[in-house]
């Protein structure tokens, strides 16, 4: 209620209310100043209202006091429920987490006034989630109440209640569900479910064959379940194990070939160990497990086995047929111990050189061997079970042919040796070397000397250089080609083989017309001339004669060549289709009667067949007459026949088509006449007077066309 102090002075006043909600939410009694609320108020929508009041004299309607402002506050009551605005709540925490560790905090809100009463004071409690979780009543923090194993249950649903009025009776409440997921930790060791494993492997299985698989289960997930497999014991050299990272299986592989006859059963220990170990759980025990794997070797019918995979044998070259090379041995590894048959199976030429005893594996030669042709022979020997011919095995035999000194040395090449006529005594004229097809163990060493028959009177000497070469020196001075053109020097060459072999090689020395230094080219030329028996002058004369003969032949060929055709004849052949040839010569520009077109129009000419020798002249006359008659005339047909005879008999007529101009169109044409001579728009309608202005060179052409036009008129 509003009240003015002026009411004591008996002034008749009225109260006026303005501001927020005046006249709608709040009403004032203008006589006593009491303020009334006309509707329910919601503090959560508007907590206070600002109003203004003034006292007015009813008689004068003037304010008696200044306007005053006041605030009406809405007092809160507990009319709102708590709300969890952040739902849904999801949290993840590692399994086996210690007690008291925080998991997540939930928060509820209340629309009531927290500063007045207990309507907005909330209290949290756990409805579902014991005994693993707890919640702090005032903060809403959820904590671990005990350790939880993910392998037992990996997800928990916890229900939290928020209650206002500090949990007193009549309070409002709300609940929220919290999903708590447990993440995995490596707290579980691997375990083999099968003990023991039984497997088998064939004795003929190759290295790397998969024998079997083992598997240890681990209730952990991800990398916490990753494990590695190992083999323990003495069998680790025969078997190996690898880990399949996708399936976490252990794959047992054959590391070494097994033999049923040697060992028929293996017992190995397979161990699975976690790859990543959490030190916090080591006290729980070792994170590994073991199992026994029993592997049985299966017996199969195996092929024979050679004592060696590769045999190396030796034999001297030139050995007689049937000489022993060596022996190969194979046996059946099975219990039956089947007999074995041997054979050579590679190459026909090898079979011709070697043979093998099929019962005992003895290899002998079938012909003498030459090391210089083939120092090594590679053959393949097979061993076949007699009881089961499908069981075959092979072995390589490498036979080396040992060298025997069976080839005498010889000069390494054919030497071309020259000596000057003015050579002095003791002059080196040639260095020689030798070669030997043999290959002694200690290497080659050759000895050189003159043959016995040439030592006394020889004009040359041989000096052994002790390095497998020798020098040829002159023993005397001065040589004359006229007396002796060449010398043949026998050289004795001995090798160091056992026994040593000797050969005599003849060295030809040619005397050259030079001073002391030999010119190889010049000396070769002289030697060539000497063998021909010609001197230099004679050779020059022969060459000169040959040259003269060639010039004479070329001149004869040039004279007999056909003459070149004249350009005019080529032009005639090129433009023969447009040229009509006549035997009579024109009269020049002054001759106006040479080709009178007007005379062609007369129809009184009769054609007769002329002899072939005058066919050209007669055709010229018939051509003029044909222009004067119609196409059905006998003269016209005769003209065509004469032209045909000309083409067939006259050798001077071109063999190609010739375009001829005729005055009439042939009969029987569906297209009608194509000639301009018989049309209304013929050339006769044209004016050819302008041809006179072209000069004297075109005078005859002007006369011809003018007369043609007059004839048409």
Automatic annotation (TrEMBL):
Coiled-coil ranges from the UniProt annotation: none
Gene Ontology biological process terms from the UniProt entry: adherens junction organization; calcium-dependent cell-cell adhesion via plasma membrane cell adhesion molecules; cell migration; cell morphogenesis; cell-cell adhesion mediated by cadherin; cell-cell junction assembly; homophilic cell adhesion via plasma membrane adhesion molecules
Domain called Cadherin: residue spans: 5-84, 85-192, 193-306, 307-411, 411-521
Membrane topology: Single-pass type I membrane protein
InterPro entries from the UniProt entry: Cadherin (IPR039808), Cadherin-like_dom (IPR002126), Cadherin-like_sf (IPR015919), Cadherin_CS (IPR020894), Cadherin_Y-type_LIR (IPR000233), Catenin-bd_sf (IPR027397)
Molecular-function GO terms, alphabetical: beta-catenin binding; cadherin binding; calcium ion binding
Source taxon at top rank: Eukaryota
Residues passing through the membrane, by range: 538-559
Keyword annotations from UniProtKB, A to Z: Calcium, Cell adhesion, Cell membrane, Cleavage on pair of basic residues, Glycoprotein, Membrane, Metal-binding, Repeat, Signal, Transmembrane, Transmembrane helix
Keyword check for Transmembrane helix: yes
Location of the protein in the cell: Cell membrane
Protein name: CAD19 protein
The species this protein was found in: Rhinopomastus cyanomelas
Gene from which this protein is expressed: Cdh19
């Amino acid at each position: 209620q509003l009240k003015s102090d002026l009411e004591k002075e008996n002034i008749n006043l009225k109260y006026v209310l303005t501001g927020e909600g005046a006249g709608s939410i709040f009403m004032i009694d203008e006589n006593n100043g009491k303020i009334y609320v006309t509707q329910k108020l919601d503090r959560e929508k508007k907590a206070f209202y600002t109003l203004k009041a003034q006292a007015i004299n009813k008689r004068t309607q003037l304010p008696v006091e200044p306007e005053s402002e006041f605030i009406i506050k809405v007092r809160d009551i507990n009319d709102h429920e708590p709300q969890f605005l952040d739902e849904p709540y999801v949290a993840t925490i590692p399994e086996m987490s210690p007690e008291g560790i925080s998991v997540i905090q939930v928060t509820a809100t209340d629309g009531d006034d927290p500063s007045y009463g207990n309507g907005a004071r909330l209290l949290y409690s756990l409805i579902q989630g014991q005994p693993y979780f707890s919640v702090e009543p005032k903060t809403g923090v959820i904590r671990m109440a005990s350790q939880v194993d993910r392998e037992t249950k990996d997800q928990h649903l916890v229900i939290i209640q928020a209650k206002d009025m500090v949990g007193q009776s009549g309070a409002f409440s709300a609940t929220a569900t919290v999903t708590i997921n447990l993440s995995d930790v490596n707290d579980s060791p691997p375990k083999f479910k099968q003990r023991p494993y039984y497997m088998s492997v064939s004795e003929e299985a190759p290295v790397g064959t998969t024998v079997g698989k083992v598997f240890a289960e681990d209730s952990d997930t991800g990398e916490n379940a990753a494990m590695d497999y190992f083999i323990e014991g003495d069998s680790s050299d025969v078997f190996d194990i690898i880990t399949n990272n996708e399936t976490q299986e252990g794959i047992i592989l054959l590391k070494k070939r097994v033999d049923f006859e040697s060992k028929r059963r293996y017992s190995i220990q397979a161990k699975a160990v976690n790859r990543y170990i959490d030190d916090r759980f080591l006290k729980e025990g070792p994170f590994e497990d073991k199992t026994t794997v029993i592997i049985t070797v299966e017996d199969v019918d195996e092929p024979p086995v050679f004592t060696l995979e590769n045999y190396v044998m030796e034999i001297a070259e030139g050995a007689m047929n049937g000489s022993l090379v060596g022996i190969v041995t194979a046996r059946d590894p099975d219990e039956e111990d089947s007999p074995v048959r041997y054979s050579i199976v590679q190459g026909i030429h090898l079979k011709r050189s070697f043979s093998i005893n099929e019962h005992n594996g003895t290899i002998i030669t079938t012909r003498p061997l030459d090391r210089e042709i083939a120092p090594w022979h590679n053959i393949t020997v097979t061993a076949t079970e007699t009881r089961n011919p499908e069981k075959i095995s092979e072995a390589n035999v490498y036979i080396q042919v040992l060298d025997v000194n069976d080839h005498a040395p010889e000069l390494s090449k054919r030497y071309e040796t020259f000596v000057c006529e003015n050579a002095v005594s003791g002059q080196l004229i040639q260095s020689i070397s030798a070669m030997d097809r043999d290959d002694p163990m200690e290497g080659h060493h050759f000895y050189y000397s003159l043959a016995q028959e040439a030592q006394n009177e020889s004009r040359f000497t041989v000096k052994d250089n002790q390095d497998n070469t020798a020098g040829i020196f002159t023993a005397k001075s001065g040589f004359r080609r006229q007396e002796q053109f060449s010398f043949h020097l026998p050289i004795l060459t001995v090798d160091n083989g056992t026994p040593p072999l000797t050969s005599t090689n003849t060295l030809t020395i040619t005397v050259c017309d030079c001073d002391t230094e030999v010119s190889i080219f010049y000396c070769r030329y002289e030697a060539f001339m000497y063998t021909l028996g010609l001197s230099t002058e004679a050779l020059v004369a022969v060459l000169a004669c040959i040259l003269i003969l060639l010039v004479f032949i070329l001149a004869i060929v040039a004279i007999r060549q056909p003459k070149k055709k004249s350009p005019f004849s080529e032009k005639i052949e090129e433009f023969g289709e447009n040229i009509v040839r006549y035997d009579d010569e024109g009269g020049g520009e002054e001759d106006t009667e040479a080709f009178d077109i007007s005379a062609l129009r007369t129809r009184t000419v009769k054609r007769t067949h002329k002899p072939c020798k005058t066919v050209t002249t007669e055709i010229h006359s018939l051509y003029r007459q044909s222009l004067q008659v119609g196409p059905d005339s006998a003269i016209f047909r005769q003209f065509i026949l004469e032209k045909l005879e000309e083409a067939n008999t006259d050798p001077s007529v071109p063999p190609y088509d010739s375009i001829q101009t005729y005055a009439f169109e042939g009969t029987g044409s569906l297209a009608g006449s194509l000639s301009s001579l018989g049309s209304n728009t013929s050339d006769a309608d044209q004016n050819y007077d302008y041809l006179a202005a072209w000069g004297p060179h075109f005078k005859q052409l002007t006369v011809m066309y003018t007369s043609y036009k007059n004839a048409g008129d």
